Amino acid sequence: MAKEERKRKHQDAAIGDGESKKVKKEKKEKKEKKEKKEKKDKKDKKEKKDKKDKEEKEEKKEKKEKKEKKEKKEKKEKKDAEPESHAKSVGAKVSSSKKSTVKYEQSEAINSYSQDKVDEFLKSNEIAIDDPENTGLKPILDFSHVDLDSRISKALEKYPTPTPIQAASWPFLLSGQDVVGVAETGSGKTLGFGVPAVNNFLRLGKQGLKILCVSPTRELAVQIYDNLVEVTKSTSVKCTVLYGGVPKYEQIENLKGANVVVATPGRLIDIINDGAINLGTVDYLVLDEADRMLEKGFEQDIKTIMQNTAGASRQTVMFTATWPKEVRELASSFMKNPVKVNIGNRDELVANKRIEQIVEVIEPYHKENKLLSLLRKYQSKNKNDKILIFALYKKEARRIESLLQRNSFHVAAIHGDLSQQQRTSALDAFKSGRSSLLLATDVAARGLDIPNVKIVINLTFPLTVEDYVHRIGRTGRAGQSGIAHTLFTEHEKHLSGALVNVLRGADQPVPEELLKFGGHTKKKTHSVYGAFYKDVDTTKTAKKIKFD
Ligand SMILES: Nc1ncnc2c1ncn2[C@@H]1O[C@H](COP(=O)(O)OP(=O)(O)OP(=O)(O)O)[C@@H](O)[C@H]1O
């Protein structure tokens, strides 16, 4: 039994030993497994972390790159939209980088003509081009030298060749650059700024209200509108006109779907204040008679209008026949690196040389009799010759109107005291020839293109010599000749020097009596310059306009 017991114990022990070895082994294995697992987990974790870090890094990098790309793109877009990034010369092919959409390619015909030919053309037409970006764009010598929309070309068929201001300014305007264009009265400036505006509108598939032309007087606004309607008549471009003195309602209705707006500043601002027009889409803004628009009477209005337009992406265009130094600084504050196209040395005040200028110095009290005798003289040559008489003040115009009527002259009159309807019908009567005499204040001095005005009589000298140049410019238009007969009195002697310069500049005789005033050259803009014909909409109520 004891032996049995021992054997069993031994066996038990043996089993026990065996078991503990197995357990130990198992434990060891377990431990190893655990350690292995931990190691693997750790490794996995590390790999995961590395991967995550890498991903995060890549994501960050990607984000950064994206951001940089976006910023770069935005910067480029902004730059492209800024008017100062003008066209750069690319050899024969010149295109503008100003707006990504604006491209002007100089035609093969232009590329092929030599610099000598260009110089000769510039010289013979007295064209000076100041091109601050050195784009090297050459003028066009023929309408076929620009790739105009065929519907616009059709509207130009009646003209043989571009006028010098059109020839020299179109390449710059078509390439999207800001332009100051200064050229004599009656030299086609309206189509000068109008054709490129409409052509780019069509070519670039623009939509909405894009073109705004601002003019100082109602009659001129209507005339510009008529010109643009003529140019766009075969297209779907819609033009409309806003001016004071007539009800607003219909004008506001006409704004629906308009692509081109021509406006006088007062009515335009009135309609802006009504919230009936949004100029934010306008990217081509013209100031016609730009020096007048920048004078004191309009300055604030123009600032408001500018602030309402598309800003940096706006192409700003200023055209005029006179460009006094006094307005140039203000002009440049609205423009970016403008190209200056100057026809006929217009850095100085120059009158149209085809106008014969006669200046008579007389006593103020002789003026009315002198006028009557001048009218008889000129009408005896040809009763139907159109004669435009300028007075300075509305009161004077009224007095002269009755003087002429008393003396059996059939005269139409246009001045600020008349209703718009009266003004319009007087102008129509003169244009159509129903009345061969028109008596006007300076409301008719600028821009009006009345066919066949043969004689301009200045009964009273205007407030500035610039206005004199514009007044006499109602004759001698589009290559024709004309006569300007001016009565000059001691009341205007402070302007004698400037007038002498204008006469000399146009190779006209200078009367001895004019020189006796001492050749003053004081050329100060009158503080109320233009106040006599600022179109004020009397129907509108005053509204406070806030500026930044
Ligand atoms: N290429 C052209 N060839 C001949 N005549 C033209 C040409 N372009 C325009 N005209 C005509 O010339 C006349 C004068 O043009 P417009 O009224 O535009 O002159 P302007 O230079 O604006 O004058 P202002 O300084 O007095 O405003 C218009 O009757 C117009 O039809």
From TrEMBL:
Transmembrane segments: none annotated. Keywords: ATP-binding, Helicase, Hydrolase, Nucleotide-binding, Nucleus, Ribosome biogenesis, rRNA processing. Residues 1-10, 22-49, 63-76 have a biased composition (Basic residues). Residues 170-341 form the Helicase ATP-binding domain. GO terms for molecular function: ATP binding; hydrolase activity; nucleic acid binding; RNA helicase activity. A motif (Q motif) lies at residues 141-167. Residues 141-167 form the DEAD-box RNA helicase Q domain. This is ATP-dependent RNA helicase DBP3. It comes from Pichia sorbitophila (strain ATCC MYA-4447 / BCRC 22081 / CBS 7064 / NBRC 10061 / NRRL Y-12695) (Hybrid yeast). Residues 88-99 have a biased composition (Low complexity). Residues 370-518 form the Helicase C-terminal domain. Residues 50-62, 77-87 have a biased composition (Basic and acidic residues). The keyword Hydrolase applies. It catalyses: ATP + H2O = ADP + phosphate + H(+). Pfam families: DEAD (PF00270), Helicase_C (PF00271). ATP-dependent RNA helicase required for 60S ribosomal subunit synthesis. Involved in efficient pre-rRNA processing, predominantly at site A3, which is necessary for the normal formation of 25S and 5.8S rRNAs. Belongs to the DEAD box helicase family. DDX5/DBP2 subfamily. Its EC number is 3.6.4.13. Residues 1-104 are annotated as: Disordered. SUPFAM superfamilies: P-loop containing nucleoside triphosphate hydrolases. It is found in: Nucleus, Nucleolus. InterPro entries: DEAD/DEAH_box_helicase_dom, DEAD/DEAH_RhlB, Helicase_ATP-bd, Helicase_C-like, P-loop_NTPase, RNA-helicase_DEAD-box_CS, RNA_helicase_DEAD_Q_motif. PANTHER family: ATP-DEPENDENT RNA HELICASE DBP3 (PTHR47958).
